[in-house]
Design brief:
Helices cover about 25% and strands about 50% of the residues. The chain is built from two helices and seven strands. Strand 1 and strand 2 form a beta hairpin. Helix 1 packs antiparallel against helix 2.
Length: about 90
């Protein structure tokens, strides 16, 4: 993690968190992660077969949810801008 931005809103239902967490990783690590997590078996196999992957990625993960409930803050998605060469 190299950057983080959070917003807490005080709504009628209680406090609400919106949190973006940004970091960096190698494209090779990103491809390995995607090969294990994508739902398409065909795409997963294709990603796992890639070799000599070069480049970098700067993923941003988003967490959102109510702060006044146990387990209320959950993963809401990610953005993956990257540059890759194989």
């Amino acid at each position: 993690m190299n950057e983080s931005k959070a917003l807490v809103s005080f709504l009628e239902a209680g406090p609400w968190l919106e949190w973006d967490i940004t970091g960096t990783m190698t494209a090779a690590d990103l491809v390995q992660h995607l090969a294990k997590t994508v739902k398409s078996e065909q795409l997963s196999r294709m990603l796992a077969a890639l070799r000599d992957v070069e480049g970098n990625a700067a993923p941003t993960f988003r967490m959102v949810g109510p702060l006044n409930q146990p387990g209320g803050v959950t993963f809401a998605g990610e953005r993956l801008p990257f540059s890759v060469s194989v």
